[in-house]
Amino acid sequence: PCKLVVLLSGSGSNLQAFIDACKNKQLPNTEICAVISNKADAFGLVRAQQAGITTACIDHKQFGSREDFDAALQAKIDEFDADLVVLAGFMRILTPGFVRHYLGRLINIHPSLLPKYPGLHTHQRAIDAGDKEAGATVHFVTEELDGGPPIIQAKIPIFDGDDAATLADRVLSKEHTIYPLAAQWFAEGRLSLRNSKAVLDDKNLPENGVL
Ligand code: GAR
């Protein structure tokens, strides 16, 4: 099976989408080996425990530098022999050494239509800019923050009455579809990082890779 390790910092609704996708066989040959949080009180850890998944907390505040934290994180992940490391609301910037170690098997979901709005407060920025559309992007992680090659995006309209919270809710529900799908492609051996591009062997790709 394809062994996943999920890293998170918060609610873990994307983790839940992965747990559900494993249960209902959308991810047939996939096992979530561990969920690791940098925050002890992340609700994602509770979700993992309820699903019988091994959990670990590595608190970034216990480390003197990003390098030391990432080294501990890497050692923990590698205990599980992960094929794919899934960042699911993991709110720490990763060091170049860490990213290189997992290059091609480290993916992230970001709540904007990248390359628009890397970083934080994506929904408020989209509203403030008067954008008509928002969305989320699954991408391979590279050393450039939120700048790695995109794998799939989901787009939704921004309505007149939207605020950052209503928009975040609707984007999140799309995230729950596209993120397990990207992992499914990876587990099937159809998705890889080649020459700094995400390559998908798929005849049935949605148009422009947008779902
Ligand atoms: C998601 O919207 C995800 O795209 C975002 O955090 C949320 C986590 O929700 N990630 C980032 O902003 C990464 N910089 P969840 O904990 O319910 O999955």
TrEMBL record:
Q: Which GO terms describe its molecular function?
A: phosphoribosylglycinamide formyltransferase activity
Which residues are named in the active-site annotation?
110
Cite a GO CC annotation.
cytosol
UniProt GO BP: 'de novo' IMP biosynthetic process
Q: Matching Pfam families, A to Z?
A: Formyl_trans_N (PF00551)
Q: Which UniProt keywords apply?
A: Purine biosynthesis, Transferase
Query: In which pathway does this enzyme or protein participate?
Result: Purine metabolism; IMP biosynthesis via de novo pathway; N(2)-formyl-N(1)-(5-phospho-D-ribosyl)glycinamide from N(1)-(5-phospho-D-ribosyl)glycinamide (10-formyl THF route): step 1/1
> Key word Transferase present in the record?
yes
Q: Which positions does UniProt annotate for N(1)-(5-phospho-beta-D-ribosyl)glycinamide binding?
A: 12-14
Which residues bear the site annotation Raises pKa of active site His?
Answer: 146
Query: Which parts of the sequence belong to the Formyl transferase N-terminal domain?
Result: 3-182
Q: Which residues bind (6R)-10-formyltetrahydrofolate?
A: 66, 91-94, 108
The record's section on SUPFAM superfamilies has: Formyltransferase
Q: What class of enzyme is it?
A: transferase
The answer, when asked if Transferase is one of the entry's keywords, is: yes
Question: Which Enzyme Commission numbers does its entry carry?
Answer: 2.1.2.2
In terms of InterPro entries, this protein maps to:
Formyl_transf_N, Formyl_transf_N_sf, GART, GART_AS
> CDD domains, per this entry?
FMT_core_GART
Q: Which reaction does it catalyse?
A: N(1)-(5-phospho-beta-D-ribosyl)glycinamide + (6R)-10-formyltetrahydrofolate = N(2)-formyl-N(1)-(5-phospho-beta-D-ribosyl)glycinamide + (6S)-5,6,7,8-tetrahydrofolate + H(+)
Which HAMAP family does the record match to this protein?
A: PurN (MF_01930)
- State the protein's purpose: Catalyzes the transfer of a formyl group from 10-formyltetrahydrofolate to 5-phospho-ribosyl-glycinamide (GAR), producing 5-phospho-ribosyl-N-formylglycinamide (FGAR) and tetrahydrofolate.
UniProt lists the family membership as follows: Belongs to the GART family.
Protein name as it appears in the record: Phosphoribosylglycinamide formyltransferase
To which species is this protein native? Zhongshania marina
Q: What is the lineage of its organism?
A: Bacteria, Pseudomonadati, Pseudomonadota, Gammaproteobacteria, Cellvibrionales
As recorded in Swiss-Prot or TrEMBL, the protein's gene is named purN
